[in-house]
């Protein structure tokens, strides 16, 4: 039987050449995304994560400025979700975090993410 457990999480998504959809609210033509290698996306995300963990930046502020997901408008907040609603690597990472923890870089078909579990 599927678990009814839900988590609430926010994320920052950086899309790259290998992303399923190469466009976003901040790059509607996909010009930047199409020229971003996966390695570049990962290294950008790692440095953003370091700034957040060090307290030099707020997760929500970084998400609203830089995330390629439409959730950027909500500071990266995806709301509550259960199992089977997100891509598997994303879901596994979100469920493994404790509230307030930030994941390492997670890869999905959408791009690369860092996830903050909020509930």
TrEMBL record:
Catalyzed reactions per annotation: [protein]-peptidylproline (omega=180) = [protein]-peptidylproline (omega=0)
EC number: 5.2.1.8
Superkingdom of the source species: Eukaryota
A Pfam family assignment: Rotamase
Stretches the record annotates as Disordered: 1-32
Enzyme class label: isomerase
Chain ranges of the PpiC domain: 4-119
Alphabetical list of InterPro entries matching this protein: PPIase_dom_sf (IPR046357), PPIase_Pin1 (IPR051370), PPIase_PpiC (IPR000297), PPIase_PpiC_CS (IPR023058)
Cellular component per GO, a single term: cytosol
Keywords from the named record: Isomerase, Rotamase
Biased composition regions of type Basic residues, renumbered to the chain: 13-23
Molecular functions per Gene Ontology: peptidyl-prolyl cis-trans isomerase activity
Family: Belongs to the PpiC/parvulin rotamase family.
Function: Prolyl cis/trans isomerase with specificity for phospho-Ser-Pro bonds.
Name of protein: Peptidyl-prolyl cis-trans isomerase
Species this chain originates from: Nepenthes gracilis (Slender pitcher plant)
